[in-house]
Amino acid sequence: MTSLHHQHADAVAATLDAALWQLDAHAVMEARAIADLADAAADPIRSPTWGRRHALGGHGDPVGDAILGLGGRIRRNRYADLSREVTEQLDGVARHLPAPLGWTAPLTRIRDAIPAMTTHAAGRTTLLLDRLNGRIRRQLRIGTGLDHLAGLECPACRDRLVSAYTAAPATVICRCDHCRCTGPGCHCRLPGAVVGAPHVWVRARAVAGAIPTNTPH
Ligand SMILES: [Zn+2]
Ligand SMILES: [Zn+2]
């Protein structure tokens, strides 16, 4: 059975994917801005090369070398730097997973592998994806990727700090700091209850009528 860690990993992977798309878009815009600066400086400059998304979806080998030379007068493309760093970390996980035919973006490979992961591995993967997601979203200042749902209570702690993942809106999570599952027998009575996981469930199980409020967190 799919555990709470697996459900959480799926939702966080979708959220990270959405963040990476925005990061790559910022990297492209920043490259143009840097190129404009370089033109204005009328100095020879190396053209940035840009990764392109693979047809399978996901994130191509990102994005861009930092602008070289010019004695540091042209800024680095910090979005491209972060995209490359995130992709390298994802690749470090994906290279241990079963390889599909052809090239597939590392995050896609990780997402495809989640259902077959052990509960422990799904929990570890969630932590990594969540950390990378947070780094990107903080740099882009685009919020957490969660929408607060008014009127919805957690089945375990009965608090109302429940949010849906924007990129996976059927999946909701209790955001109370101290609300963690205690495994089978937990008050949540959720399928896939596992010790230490946050409470994550499919929205159809939630109280009807919950309204997203887009409250920033
Ligand atoms: Zn809770
Ligand atoms: Zn629980």
Written overview of the protein:
The protein is α+β, with helices and mostly antiparallel strands and 217 residues long. The protein has two domains: 4-140, no CATH class; 146-212, no CATH class. 39% of the residues lie in helices and 10% in strands. It contains four helices and five strands. It has a five-stranded antiparallel β-sheet, with helices on one face. Helix 1 packs antiparallel against helix 2 (78-94), helix 1 runs parallel beside helix 4 and helix 2 (78-94) packs parallel to helix 3. The longest helix has 38 residues, at 4-41. 38% of the residues are buried. One zinc ion (ZN) binds at residues 156, 181-182, 186, 188, 190, 193, 199.
Helix/strand-derived category reads alpha+beta
Instruction: Report the portion of residues in β strands.
Output: 5-15%
Q: What percentage of residues falls in helices of 4 or more residues?
A: 25-40%
Order of helices and strands: HHHHEEEEE
Uncertain segments of ≥5 residues (pLDDT<50)?
A: 45-58, 60-72, 205-209
Radius of gyration: 20 Å
Instruction: Give the strand tally.
Output: 5
Tell me the span between the first and last alpha carbons.
Answer: 32 Å
| Average pLDDT figure | 84
Q: Helix count?
A: 4
Bound molecules: zinc ion
Number of domains: 2
What profile does the largest beta sheet have? 5 strands, antiparallel
Oligomeric organization of the protein chains:
single chain
Spatial strand order of the main sheet = 4-3-2-1-5
Shape: globular
